[in-house]
Design goal:
The protein is α+β, with helices and mostly antiparallel strands. The protein folds into three domains: 2-57; 99-223, Dipeptide-binding Protein, domain 1 (Alpha-Beta Complex), CATH 3.90.76; 307-534, Dipeptide-binding Protein, Domain 3 (Dipeptide-binding Protein, domain 3, Roll). The protein has 14 helices and 20 strands. The chain has helices at residues 2-18, 26-57, 88-97, 145-156, 203-206, 273-281, 327-336, 339-348, 374-383, 412-428, 443-451, 472-475, 493-503, 508-525; strands at residues 59-63, 68-74, 102-104, 110-112, 115-120, 126-131, 172-177, 180-184, 229-236, 243-251, 264-270, 287-288, 302-317, 387-388, 394-395, 403-409, 431-437, 458-464, 528-541, 570-574. It has a ten-stranded mixed beta sheet with strand order 9-10-11-2-12-19-13-18-16-17, sandwiched between helices. Strand 5 (115-120) and strand 6 (126-131) form a beta hairpin. The radius of gyration is 35 Å and the shape is globular. The model has no long low-confidence stretch (mean pLDDT 88).
């Protein structure tokens, strides 16, 4: 073990000479050592600060899942069956709880929601619809072709009395398999997809219910749904907050598209707009689309957004009854009215000239409209047998004054325009009675009491103009009468034939020519006078994320096209460098 002792002695000598022996030199280099240690500390601290700073720079505040949203709507919910939605409350609820076969996307184009595809055969009469895979009702049952066949059968059944406007009475529908359906049309219709913008109802729930009793069935208040939200509960309103009902919806975890960010969506229904204004002022609701006017004294967090939609206000002239049967009188009224003046500065920017939106009629040559000219208007009245008398009234040879009854529902801009229109007619020498129906009277009552029986000489009314250029439903002689939508009772065989040919041809050039022919006759015959394109004014809490500002809407309900992305909850999230 001698060698080991010698080794340890050498190690000891080396340690003593190289470390212990040099400790006395520390005093001489202590300043350098101190500076070196401080530098190391500074570098270490800077590294920590940099790590914290970089960590924060890769974080941001963003909307996330959670939270709730509430909207105020007008009208009591009498049914949650989407095929019977009449007032705004029922329509909003239908949009939130039920998916359509086809719906408008954020660009204003129809896209398949429940539908995967729709194809047309060479004849243009046979269409095949294919449903998406893995789509389910909220009770877990598959959505199948049986639901398509049942729903369309219910819409076509007159005893069911649904509110869906699509006409399937002459359409043959056949189930091909669980996911495919074939439609055979009586004639070519290129815009057939437009008629499929409605929701399905579950055949496995309703198939055994008499069609005439579907509205009254249990499903109407306890629906099985297919949309982004499901029914949680409905609570009757009270006099304290003036709500009619409060409907609580939960996120539908089984929705086949992306889950909604919102946990809950609450619908609060009211009877009057003034109550909705109070609810906004008290921040009792997040938003509403029911107010058309500027509202004062709202909280600073409440903003508003105006969005143009594919709807329009027209003055519909009843061409079947009374003095307006005479085309020259209709032409005279068109010449006598200064449209820009009666609209006012704000609405003139939304002026609507034709029965087809110019954005819909790309490539169409729109005919020139007659200009405001009182002298020409009086000349036309002379030709129609009415002469201006000393009292300024227009009277016929029997001394009878030209009298007209006008009808309008008391709704924001429409009422104001109708009043201005009335004044212009009176200044022209026409004796006018303007019947303004209270807005609180439901739209359904106004429609059944005034619109349906055509109880007016001139009706001021807003209509949906749809996605595609197809004014058939409003001006075809086939739509005259209480069951149709020809609000002018306009019967011109050439115009009707042009409309029918336009919607039933596969030849694009012929379609263009037919619609141009119709437009020319519409201008000449004056069954209606275009007023303004509609807008939706949306009041909302600015801290919430709502529909995209550049969204192109066909109707006001299209604001929910991206409801999956609406949010009220914010939090810190990591972002990728």
């Amino acid at each position: 073990m001698r060698w080991f002792r010698e080794l340890m002695e050498k190690i000891g000598d080396h340690f003593s000479s190289m470390f212990v022996g040099r400790l006395k030199n520390v005093r001489e280099v202590r300043l350098w050592v101190t500076e070196w240690l401080l530098l190391v500390a500074v570098v270490f601290l800077m590294s920590i600060v940099q790590m914290i700073w970089y960590g924060e720079s890769y974080e941001t505040e963003a909307y996330q899942k959670g939270g709730e949203y509430s909207e105020a709507t007008l009208g009591k919910i009498n049914s949650m069956n989407p095929l019977y939605a009449t007032n705004n409350s029922e329509k909003v609820l239908a949009k939130l709880m039920f998916a359509n076969l086809y719906s408008s996307d954020v660009s204003g184009h129809l896209k398949g929601e429940l539908a995967k595809s729709l194809s047309m055969d060479d004849t243009g009469k046979v269409w095949t619809l294919e449903l998406r895979d893995k789509i389910k009702w909220s009770d877990g049952e598959e959505i199948t072709a049986d639901d398509v066949v049942y729903t369309i059968g219910l819409i076509a059944d007159k005893t069911a009395k649904t509110t869906v406007s699509a006409d399937f009475s002459n359409v043959k529908i056949e189930k091909i398999d669980d996911k495919s359906v074939k439609f055979t049309l009586p004639s070519v219709y290129l815009d057939f997809m437009d008629t499929l913008e409605f929701p399905l109802v579950p055949s496995h729930i309703l198939k055994d219910v008499n069609p005439a009793l579907v509205y009254e069935s249990d499903f109407s208040m306890h629906p099985v749904v297919s949309g982004p939200f499901t029914l949680n509960a409905i609570q009757l309103g009270n006099s304290l907050d003036k709500t009619l009902q409060t409907v609580y919806l939960n996120r539908n975890e089984g929705y086949f598209l992306a889950d909604a960010k919102l946990n809950n969506f609450t619908l609060k229904t009211f009877e009057q707009k003034s109550d909705i204004v109070d609810a906004l002022r008290s921040l009792n609701v997040t938003a509403t689309a029911e107010l058309t006017d500027d509202i004062d004294n709202l909280p600073k967090t409440i903003s508003s957004r105006a969005s143009r939609i594919n709807s329009g206000a027209y003055a519909f002239l009843n061409t079947r009854d009374g003095a307006l049967k005479e085309v020259k009188i209709r032409q005279a009224i068109r010449r006598a009215i200064d449209i820009d003046k009666i609209l006012g500065e704000e609405l003139s920017t939304l002026r609507l000239n034709y029965p087809i939106l110019e954005s819909q009629g790309e490539g169409l040559n729109f005919p020139e409209l007659p200009e405001h000219n009182l002298d020409e208007a009086k000349k036309l009245m002379e030709e129609a047998g009415y002469h201006e008398k000393e009292d300024g009234k227009l009277k016929n040879d029997n001394g009878e004054t030209l009298k007209l009854n006008l009808a309008v529902q008391n709704r924001g801009n429409l009422k104001v325009v109708a009043e201005n229109f009335t004044k212009a007619l009176r200044d022209f020498g026409v004796e006018v009675v303007l019947n303004a129906y209270d807005e609180e009277q439901s739209s359904a009552d106004f429609f059944s009491a005034v619109v349906k029986p055509r109880d007016y000489d001139i009706l001021f009314y807003e209509i949906d103009l749809g996605t595609s250029a197809d004014p058939f439903v409003y001006y075809s002689s086939r739509q005259i009468g209480e069951s149709g939508w020809n609000l002018s009772n306009y019967a011109n065989s050439l115009a009707s034939d042009a409309l029918l040919s336009g919607r039933t041809t596969t030849n694009r050039d012929l379609r263009k020519a037919k619609y141009e022919s119709f437009l020319k006759r519409w201008v000449e015959d004056v069954p209606s006078i275009g007023l303004y394109q509609s807008t939706m004014r949306y009041y909302y809490d600015s801290t919430a994320r709502i529909y995209s500002e550049d969204m192109h809407m066909i109707d006001a309900l299209d604001r929910f096209a991206d409801v999956n992305h609406w949010a009220t909850e914010r939090g810190t999230v990591k972002i990728t460098p």
